């Protein structure tokens, strides 16, 4: 999430009651979780396992719970007891919860020629382009951006909170939800089927690229990036921070794990499980996923196992 305007580190330190260490004369321009940080961003870390990752990331400012680390040149630490709570404080300040009392928010912008059917909810600061069709019972939550000529079928929810939790076993609630201060961006000429769910980013954007077609009952996790002209079959589930490059096809019930990439023009056949980054311009199948032709050969051999076993047993008798 980018701030409306750069803010001084001293102001941030006052907001979260932090001690400043390092280069403190540069302003902060946003806050992001580790997968999406850029120069000028704040990031938080509260476990020694991830100290180095955050310190060496693109983030300029690290909210951390120790001073016993080497501060990289040009960066600063904001030292607090609970970095997670500091993150929550910052995101609540810049993206506070805004309740609605009407179906279409006064702050929503809806383009010329767009049709909004009955029982659609459109949240705060939503921007919808021209010549779209939004079918009944669609929910479009805060800060979502939708391009031109987009079709969203009945019952779909866009912009729900990320499935992203901070885990600590030394407190009463082991799982504490991180504030989702990101959004969803749907580009031009996208079609989204019935009863899909597309989560907003934790701190960045979930993106569906131009010309992509999504079937019914598809789940896209936080900060998933779908390229242009992709085709996604029914009941596909894609976990957070995964990238589909242009022209990818995922057939029905494909499951995709988190933080990986599916290469350009790859095809993944139905009910496959993608657990790793895979190359483009190939066809895949199986769980864990593998080249489809190799998987078919494997299945042939599996079918021959009973006959082979029978021969072994006859030879031994």
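^ structure tokens above, recovered residues below v
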């Amino acid at each position: 999430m980018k701030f409306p305007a750069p803010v001084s580190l001293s102001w941030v330190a006052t907001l979260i009651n932090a001690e400043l260490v390092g280069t403190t004369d540069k302003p902060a321009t946003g806050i992001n979780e580790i997968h999406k940080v850029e120069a000028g961003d704040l990031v938080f870390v509260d476990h020694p396992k991830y100290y180095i990752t955050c310190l060496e990331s693109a983030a300029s400012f690290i909210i951390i719970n120790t001073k016993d680390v080497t501060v990289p040149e040009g960066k600063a630490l904001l030292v607090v007891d609970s970095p997670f709570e500091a993150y929550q404080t910052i995101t609540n300040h810049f993206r506070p919860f805004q309740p609605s009392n009407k179906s279409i928010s006064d702050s929503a912008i809806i383009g010329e020629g767009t049709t909004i059917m009955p029982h659609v909810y459109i949240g705060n600061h939503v921007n919808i382009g021209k010549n779209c069709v939004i079918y009944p019972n669609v929910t479009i939550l805060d800060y979502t951006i939708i391009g031109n000529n987009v079709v969203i079928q009945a019952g779909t929810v866009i912009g729900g909170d990320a499935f992203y939790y901070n885990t600590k076993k030394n407190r009463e609630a082991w799982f504490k939800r991180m504030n989702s201060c990101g959004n969803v961006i749907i580009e031009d000429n996208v079609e989204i089927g019935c009863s899909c769910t597309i989560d907003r980013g934790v701190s960045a954007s979930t993106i569906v690229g131009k010309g992509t077609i999504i079937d019914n009952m598809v789940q896209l996790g936080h900060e998933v990036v779908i390229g242009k002209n992709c085709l996604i079959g029914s009941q596909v589930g894609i976990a957070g921070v995964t990238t589909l490059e242009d022209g990818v096809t995922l057939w029905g019930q494909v499951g995709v794990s988190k933080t990986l990439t599916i290469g350009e023009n790859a095809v993944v056949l139905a009910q496959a499980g993608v657990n790793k980054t895979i190359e483009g311009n190939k066809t895949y199948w199986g769980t864990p996923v593998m080249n489809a032709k190799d998987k078919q050969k494997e299945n042939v051999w599996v079918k021959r196992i009973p006959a082979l076993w029978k021969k072994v047993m006859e030879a031994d008798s």
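The first strand starts at residue 2 and ends at 7.
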